Amino acid sequence: xxxxxxxxxxxxxxxxxxxxxxxxxxxxxxxxxxxxxxxxxxxxxxxxxxxxxxxxxxxxxxxxxxxxxxxxxxxxxxxxxxxxxxxxxxxxxxxxxxxxxxxxxxxxxxxxxxxxxxxxxxxxxxxxxxxxxxxxxxxxxxxxxxxxxxxxxxxxxxxxxxxxxxxxxxxxxxxxxxxxxxxxxxxxxxxxxxxxxxxxxxxxxxxxxxxxxxxxxxxxxxxxxxxxxxxxxxxxxxxxxxxxxxxxxxxxxxxxxxxxxxxxxxxxxxxxxxxxxxxxxxxxxxxxxxxxxxxxxxxxxxxxxxxxxxxxxxxxxxxxxxxxxxxxxxxxxxxxxxxxxxxx
Length: 344
Ligand code: AQP
Known about the structure:
By secondary structure, this protein is mostly helical. It has helices at 20-33, 45-48, 55-72, 89-98, 103-107, 110-116, 125-139, 153-169, 171-176, 225-234, 253-265, 270-277, 282-308, 311-340; strands spanning 7-12, 38-43, 80-83, 145-147, 188-190.
């Protein structure tokens, strides 16, 4: 795999309020990776319509996620920021990969099972095919690294399986066309740190999610200081004081979650946070957590509000990013067509 240039790709769905989970699980990592890698960050609107969306709200959400990327510190000049539907090659490669992926592989996807629930016969074909489109998103840029939250691990494994099967199925052509032993890299998930799975503030066993009906379950990037403080004060805890050792967090999902959030926001380990707060009560810890969260998120929320006032600027960033992304994706698709045996 040595011949692949390191390149980062990741995406966020424009499906509502971006929250602290998206920020800690994905966006902070996007920002950090800019220092060391060439990065492509995508607002994945094709993924969003796998479940029903209101067109007006979808448009607003695409701009909102873009504003969040920029406000959090993603440099759209040095790196690429765009929305997926502007680069047709994502859907084009997804079709080819649909013919590589196996039905049995998709049948194992737990996110589909969770999202489809009991209404399986009535969900869209797109929801089922979501992980193949995600593989296409990554592979159309021949990306080598993908920063994501824990919930996306299985989809990343599937993307690797699809890449590997394509490389094997078309091995002879790939070699004959001079691409070496493999055309697609096997993309590596980057899932590290204390907040790869941020949980709901109301229930420490449920993932913090945009689609949770309770707004108190999550901290939105657009929340002001007062809303952040209220939600943290109301966050579910247990009656015990905080433990001094990390082992003491076992079987205490709410405490574990809040300590993990603190650690991630303060760039510390959970053990280190417990060295400061262990033995103390939740109210002291929550006050410190409120101060820290507000200090980290309030400037981002304010910058998002400012950016959203200039829709033309946001749309310009997306158009320019899409043009640069398209240039890379088109090169990949030319080779894919040659490898597969299409005439172009
Ligand atoms: N709770 C979380 N903790 C850590 N990381 C998370 N991510 C999402 N939730 C958490 C990561 O954020 C990135 C973008 O996610 P997405 O918007 O594309 O999709 P999602 O995982 O479906 O987000 P939600 O909030 O859970 O949306 P709904 O409610 O619509 O399903 C991904 O890297 C994801 O891992």
